[in-house]
Request: fold
Amino acid sequence: MFGYYIDLALRSLKRNKVLTALMVLAIAVGIGASMTTLTVLHVLSGDPLPGKSQTLFYPQLDPQSLANYQSAGEPPEQHTWIDGMNLLQARRADRQALMTGGTVPVRPPLSGMDPFYADARYTTADFFPMFNVPLLYGNTWSAADDDNKARVAVISRTLNDKLFNGKDSTGQVLLLGDDALRIVGVLDSWRPNPHFYDNNMRGSYAQAEDVFLPLTTSRDLKLTHDGSMSCWGGHTNDKLETAPCIWLQLWVQLDTPAKAAAYKEYLTHYSQEQKLLGRFQRSPNVRLRDLMEWLDYQKVVPSDVRLQAWLAFGFLLVCLVNTVGLMLAKFMRRAGELGVRRALGASKRALFSQLLVESGVIGLSGGVCGLLLAFLGLWLVRQRPANYASLAHLDMSMLLTTFLLAVGASLMAGLLPAWRACQITPGLQLKSN
Amino acid sequence: MEIRPILSSLRRHKVAAWLVIIEVALTCAIVCNAVFLISQRVERMHMVSGIAEHELSEIRLANLGVRPDSKARTQEDLAALRLIPGVTQVSVASQLPFGSSETNDNVKLDPNQKLPTLSAAMYWGQNLAQTLGTQLVAGRNLRDDDFRDLDAVNKAATGGDPNDKQLPQVLVITQAVADKLWPGKNPLGRQIFFDKSPVTVVGVVAHLVRPSNLSSGTEYSFLVPIRSVAGDGSSYLIRSAPQDRQRVLKAALAILRTLDPRRVVLEKRTWDELRSDFFQNDREMTGLLVGVCAALLVVTALGIVGLGSFWVAQRRRMIGVRRALGATRDDILHYFQIENFLLASIGIVLGMLLAYGINLFLMVHYELPRLPGIYFPVGALALWLLGQGAVLGPALRAAAVPPVVATRSV
Reply:
């Protein structure tokens, strides 16, 4: 019976090619637009470290002066050197890393290649195990290297390919301007998405950095640091260690909720202690957001992308209403034929399923075309210069969603017209003909 | 023309009628808001910068290793750049309008005030106003003896004496800042405070947009007498006639490279390129919105044509009977036109309510202003025209139905 219905549906659709094409196209464009925007949204709001993100936290303190003080305000989003180092050395969390970004002048070992600037991350030893950073060659540096301001560096696979043709470069020298660092490790391909640990650098979806070196070493070598910095009082770049400026990010790993609660208490306690010492002037104001909460708070997903998704769904809705209308017109026009079938003994149910098959065929074709349009749309997104462009790919789950959305939507669209068309009184239709 | 028969016939096609109404309403609501978004973006893209946009080029360099005596070397670079034929002004700029990085400072009108009055972008660099080409509307530009070296200023600020003479003593503000701080009054000679340090306003420029933090006041900018050195994120800014820019940029790069080869070029572009990059997203979003609006209107029009054709086909006999009973072609035509007008009107009323709702949602989540009232009549008119245009084809076909149909049995 199903095969027969399909045959009937195809015959009926062939009878009015323009109308059929119109309905398929409307669904296809609606689905294509929604899936493109939904995929971009899905990719951008993803979890950079699935399975681990709930144990990673971003502590916040409020070390600012009383100027501009508003109670119940949010504490600043970065740390001073003193607080960062205090929290780091207290080792109250399972793991902790203090960091900031920068750009470093790389002088290639091969002659004939011009020097260039590379993005760098100045951080501490726990960064790599804490963020599950994959290693290709060698090792990362140790806490002792942090303390000794060791001249060591870990480089990315991309940089290793560029400078050393992909060979194991551990033990080699990395020249940054006039300074020589020993390469201790090479990372495997790593692109956390979003670039969650610091979104001050080239936006929230930037590539991971190419050079990683100890934060203490970067200060010792007077390497320039990039990113946002906020100060209350004068400062010079040479004395950032004591300046009342916030410019460092701190991440901690807390494996259980109990530890997280204890750490938050510790932050409050630390703030009180600093206030007693006279360093902090404001009353304790601390936050401890986990990774996903932090991304949400930072509003990393561009508002334009959300807006586009809303727009696309509005568009899909109009396309669907339109399809319902057209399908209704089509079914009602065949009232005579349906009346004959009813009179010959077809039950309402049989008619209903026949019409539903017909709308299903339209939905399926619309879905397939919509999927092709979504691929085209995502390709267009990838051609854009935005730094998240290259991430816009359809994954399995989104592919499935598209399909369910397409078929579901068109079945829904077919439901009302099919039901209406079934309400035909066979006698009346036959008479009027 | 009687409306009653139209209404009673519509009552018999409730579902189809409601579908047209819903479609018109949704389209109306989305298109109104989309057009409003487009207008907002277009307005943003045409933002006045207040500078000689087409005459500026930027070169940003970074040193390889430590650069000793960078102050003298910067002066040397500037002197060499000034000698390039076609160059009219050069400067070291800490930041540029619509550039990516921004330095801000909080300003108070009273040193004991608790919260700052506003936060403004700080442009510094000797000869910067002349190079940018800002338009002075009152007072004077900054003079050479107003300027302090950046490191001296930082040292003085760290020292903690708010009246240290090494801190900048004067500054130039934009008209927007003047209007905000002292509305309707002459700002010249008045004092503002950076934390506790007083600075006197000596000049006002018509416009100067801030680098990127536009949401905190697009034109809250200061020109501050601080001298900085190249590197550390500062750029060389070169002014020349628009047609000379590419040649000047090339010559400048060559000269800077010969003066000190141990430098890496991070940026070389005309200011027009910088502006175009800055508004890239707005341009794309505008294109997308225009596309969606067009698609929505087309889909809605096709929907009306489709349903209209269906109704005409369904009512062929009825039309024939009416024609046979004496109705003219115009009567039939008007019947369908009025029917569409009624449906569109209900759709528009619902659509306007929905448009208002969507606008409220956007105001909360996307910091958008309220939808101006003018959008409602204009949107209504547009959808009425769209409906009439779409229904014209089916209505004409209906009017062409000959009276003889009435007497034929199929």
